[in-house]
Structures are given as C-alpha cells and as structure tokens.
C-alpha cells in the first residue's frame, strides 16, 4: 500500500521525477520523461505494479519502517533518509543527477554506526505496471527489457531474482558506502554507460548550489521560498523549457473519488504564473526558455491556442483510463492524458500576456515574435472575449460567462495597451483602450451582486469563486474598492473551511453533481488560500494575512512540499504532488508580506 501523499519526497533530473516514500520505497517513476509510462506505479496500485524499496532488513515481508529522519542536503534535491536500528544507524542518499546521457536514479547506502543488515527490493513493471519485463544478467549488470524500454541496474552488491523481483541483501559498517543505480535506455540501443555514483553526487550537489545562488530573495521566509523554487525548477523539462503542473497523475482531490487527473503537461496558466515567480526571484534564463517554448508551441496558429500542451509542445493529449490500476487508496479511475486540452478557457490569454509583459518589464531580451504573438492573441480576444467558456477550473459541465475569465481578458488587453503606450509595438491604441473599458464595464455590471456586495462566479449566478480573489492582484480594481473588500469578505464567509482555508467554489449541486459537473467533493485549494492571504495584506489586514500564510506553511510536509489541496476532514494533503500551482503563490505571498513588513520576529 502506498504511503500518505505527504510521506513522499521529490527527486528529479529536470526531465522526469521520482517520489520516494518516508520508508525508503520509490513508488513512482516515469522514464524517460515526466509524461512517459511509469516503471514504478505502486503509488496508484499495489506492489505488483512496481516499486524499489531500500531500507534496513526487517526479517519479514511487507514495507519496512519509516526513516527516523530525512532531509534534503542543503538547498538541493539530494535526499537523505536515516534509520536508527538495534544494530546501528544507516543512511540512504537518493538523487537523480541532471541528465548527461541516460536518465539515472542513484541510491547510495552509507553506514553511520554499528553493522546494519540492509535489503534492496527492485520490482520493475513497465507501462504503468501492466508489463512484466524480461530480467536477466549481462556481464555484471542486471537488465530488464520489454518492448521499447530497457532499465539497467548497476551495483557492487550481490543480487538475486525471486518472485519476479530483484533482491540484494547486504550489511554496511560505519563509513562504508554501497551504491545502486538504475539507468534507462531504448531497448534497441547499446547499454548505457556504467554510472559513477560518487562523482554524480558531487556534481548534483554543485548544480543545485550554483542554481540557488541566483535567488534574489533574502527575506524571512527564504527557506520556504527556496524550497518552492527548487521544486518549480524540478518541474521544468530542461530540453524545451516546458513546465509540468505536477509530476504525477490521478492523485485524488477527494480520497476514493473520481476527481483524478493527469497533470504531467504544461498548462499555459500554470507555466505563466511559474514564470512570473521565477522572474521576481532572479531566474531570467528559465523565463527565456519558457518564452521560447511558448513560441514554438503556439507556432503560426495563435487563433487555435490550447490551454495546455505536452512538455515539448505536443497538442494531442487524449485522455484514457488505466483500468488495471486500482488507484491511490481506491480512487478510480486512473487517467493518463487530459481531455481538458480541448476546452476554451479565456483566462489563459490574460495569464500568457501578463507573463510576456512581466518578462518585457524585467528586461528580458526583446523577441519580436513574442510581441507579434501578443498582438495576435489580443486580436483573437477582441472577437471572442464575450463568449462563455469552461473557466479556470476546467468544469466538465456547460460553458458559462465566468467572471474570472472576463477579468483576465481585460488583463490581456490592458497589458497590450501599456505595451503600445510605451512605444514598444504598434497597434490600434484607441480601439483597444475602448475594448478594455467595454470589458471592465461588462464585468462590473453583469458579474457583481449589488445586494450582497460581491462579485460572483459567473454572470447571473449566486455562487462565489475563489478566483475572484485575483481581481485586485491583477489591477482590475484597486484593493480599497468596496466591491473588492466585499468579495474578499464574502469568500471568507462562504468558501472557507473551519480551519480558515479556502475552497475553489461550492461543489454541491443538483442530481449529486457539483456546479462543475462532477460527483463528490474536494479539499481546500491551497493556491486560493494563498490568494486570500495576499488580498488580506493588500487591504491592510496584514496581521491576519501573516497568520494565514504561516498556517499554510505548516501544511507542508517535513521537506517543504505541497500537493494541490488540503482535506480538512482527513487532515491530509490531497491531489497531485508536488503541485506547481501551490508553490507559486507561496512564493508570491512571501514576497508581498516581506515587502509590507508583515512577518513575525
């Protein structure tokens, strides 16, 4: 059985990632890319679907005990887990070196004190646990082959096969280090080079040390901000600059429910806000790479902008169900691909334009096609802004006139008007100024409930929506506007959980379906809760903002990682993990609170 979501650590090489449980079990790894089929899919199934367990031998079957301590080595993605046993203390060092050849996952076992018996259990199952590979030895190496894939195990320890699993039983003494490496290679190619674990460890630590040095934030929340930045960097696909929303699929928003989605793709929205956070903290190269990715993905067809793409810009992301996997804690279906790729979500035009505008304002080298793309996007917005859409939350029900979507079309036009006013591009300035005013008036007339003094989820609706918290942050209205303050207070009253966190919107509706067209409920959405903290700071309630922010920080696991949501009933993290859309607003709120001086001593 898989661990709790917060029991996992992230390691990765900026092309894929693995999740390592507190007990030393790797339950999730896709090779060779984030969106490739998993070699270890135990996270979404059982041990039969693949895992790699490393820890003290406990003399019995089943998962070993959790580590007594674990941490990342400084500001890096090198994980250390330590067990204290009756026979001594042992440390396991897990990492994936930034790729220079075959993808590798390296596990170094180090004796700390005493003599500790250890066991490695490696059960590889390709195609999300569906395919049992042919495992055999070639010279001193163990290789698992099935179809197009081969995974090679290198270690100085003795190994043996039993029950379609590769085992190694060994003992470590103080100062002794025994390394295990798996490497992926297409099965028709020559074997990958034998790893150099110690050299790779040194190079990996140096990579992260140098990368973190570029961070320009030095405020009171630096540890939380740096860990979030490292996580965002780990979710970036280095060859193209695309940024995945999360490295996992189908971790449920409601335990046992159907709200299970594949997040291993690049949402324009998520990537754009990630880019903004990186720019604000000194990471210009990532911003440049993402802008180039965007230009390639959109290509010459901005009129057919998708809300999301594959990490290399792929457009076909068809959604399928893997019926042989029982799902995380029996949360079915398990989905790969994402049918939301074909939705209309007008807000992405605003997020993309805002990101391009910020890149321009922070001095990123000019790209003429980026400016041309921005103009093309606004030309499309000009024709379609008044249409209904599926909105930021990708509802599977009927399209509506979502207020947040309209606000973000205003953002797209506003930022482009400012670009023209600065003389950086040519465009129909007066016409687009008029368009900006038309959209603003439309939202204020049709999306605002005067009696309740709050904006609503969509035109003519009574429901609230936490995305309305972005109205002052995007500059649509000033923070001291009574409509903004009324909306913030209404969301606090009607969308907050007992512990003060924020739901995206009401999930209850007629016929057992929520307003999003889906069954079941979900947890508090962490990004929305950070947005509330931001808004509270903006309207002068800075002590309340700080308390909420620090309460949100307490939800992170022991390694500083956040999933998409928080289940207030089960008191657990839920949703895909770790989630870019949670770590980005953490950074943004920390920056705002630091600028305002709203932090404790």
Automatic annotation (TrEMBL):
**Database matches in InterPro entries:** 6-hairpin_glycosidase_sf, 6hp_glycosidase-like_sf, GH15-like, Trehalase-like_N
**Which superkingdom?**
Bacteria
Positions of the Trehalase-like N-terminal domain? 2-136
Q: Which residues form the GH15-like domain?
A: 219-590
Could you identify this protein by its name?
Glucoamylase
């Amino acid at each position: 059985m898989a661990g709790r979501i917060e029991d996992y650590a992230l390691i990765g090489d900026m092309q894929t990632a693995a999740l390592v449980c507190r007990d030393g079990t790797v339950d999730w790894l896709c090779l060779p890319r984030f969106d490739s089929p998993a070699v270890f899919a135990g996270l979404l199934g059982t041990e039969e679907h693949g895992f790699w367990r490393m820890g003290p031998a406990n003399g019995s079957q089943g998962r070993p005990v959790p580590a007594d301590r674990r941490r990342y080595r400084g500001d890096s993605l090198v994980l250390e887990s330590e067990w204290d046993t009756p026979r001594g203390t042992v440390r396991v060092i897990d990492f994936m070196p930034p790729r220079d050849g075959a993808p590798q996952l390296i596990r170094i076992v180090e004796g700390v004190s005493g003599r500790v018996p250890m066991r490695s259990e490696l059960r590889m199952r390709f195609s999300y646990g569906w395919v049992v590979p042919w495992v055999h030895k070639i010279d001193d190496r163990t290789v698992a082959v099935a179809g197009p894939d081969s995974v090679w195990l290198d270690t100085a320890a003795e190994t043996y096969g039993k029950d379609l699993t590769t085992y190694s039983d060994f003992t470590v003494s103080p100062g002794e280090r025994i390394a295990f490496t798996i490497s992926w290679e297409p099965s028709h190619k020559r074997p990958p080079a034998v790893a150099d674990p110690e050299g790779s460890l040194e190079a990996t630590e140096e990579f992260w040390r140098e990368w973190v040095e570029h961070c320009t934030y030095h405020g009171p929340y630096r540890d939380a901000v740096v860990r979030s930045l490292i996580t965002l960097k780990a979710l970036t696909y280095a060859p193209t600059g695309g940024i995945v929303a999360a490295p996992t699929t189908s971790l449920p928003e409601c335990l046992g429910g159907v709200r299970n989605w594949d997040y291993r793709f690049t949402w324009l929205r998520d990537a754009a806000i990630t880019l903004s956070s990186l720019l604000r903290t000194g990471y210009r190269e990532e911003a440049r790479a993402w802008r180039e990715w965007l230009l390639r993905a959109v290509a010459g067809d901005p009129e057919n902008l998708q809300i999301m793409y594959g990490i290399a810009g792929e457009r076909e992301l068809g959604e399928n169900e893997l019926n042989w996997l029982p799902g995380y804690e029996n949360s079915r279906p398990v989905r790969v691909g994402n049918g939301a790729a074909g939705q209309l979500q007008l807000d992405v035009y605003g997020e993309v334009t805002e990101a391009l505008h910020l890149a321009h304002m922070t001095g990123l080298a000019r790209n003429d096609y980026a400016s041309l793309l921005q103009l093309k996007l606004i030309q499309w917005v000009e024709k379609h802004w008044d249409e209904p859409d599926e909105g930021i939350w990708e509802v599977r029900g009927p399209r509506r006139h979502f207020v947040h979507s309209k606000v973000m079309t205003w953002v797209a036009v506003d930022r482009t008007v400012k670009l023209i006013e600065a003389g950086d591009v040519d465009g129909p300035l007066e016409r687009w100024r008029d368009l900006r005013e038309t959209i603003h008036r439309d939202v204020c007339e049709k999306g605002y409930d005067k009696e309740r003094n709050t904006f609503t989820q969509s035109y003519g609706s009574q429901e609230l929506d936490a995305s309305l918290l972005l109205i002052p942050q995007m500059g649509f209205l000033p923070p001291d506007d009574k409509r903004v303050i009324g909306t913030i207070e209404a969301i606090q009253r009607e969308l907050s959980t007992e512990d003060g966190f924020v739901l995206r919107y009401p999930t209850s509706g007629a016929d057992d379906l929520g307003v999003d067209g889906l069954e079941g409920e979900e947890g508090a959405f962490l990004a929305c809760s950070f947005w509330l903290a931001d808004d509270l700071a903006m309207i002068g309630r800075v002590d309340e903002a700080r308390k909420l922010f620090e309460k949100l920080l307490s939800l992170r696991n022991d390694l500083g990682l956040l999933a998409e949501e928080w289940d207030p009933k089960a008191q657990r993290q839920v949703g895909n993990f770790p989630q870019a859309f949670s770590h980005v607003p953490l950074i943004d709120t920390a920056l705002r609170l630091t600028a305002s001086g709203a932090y404790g001593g």
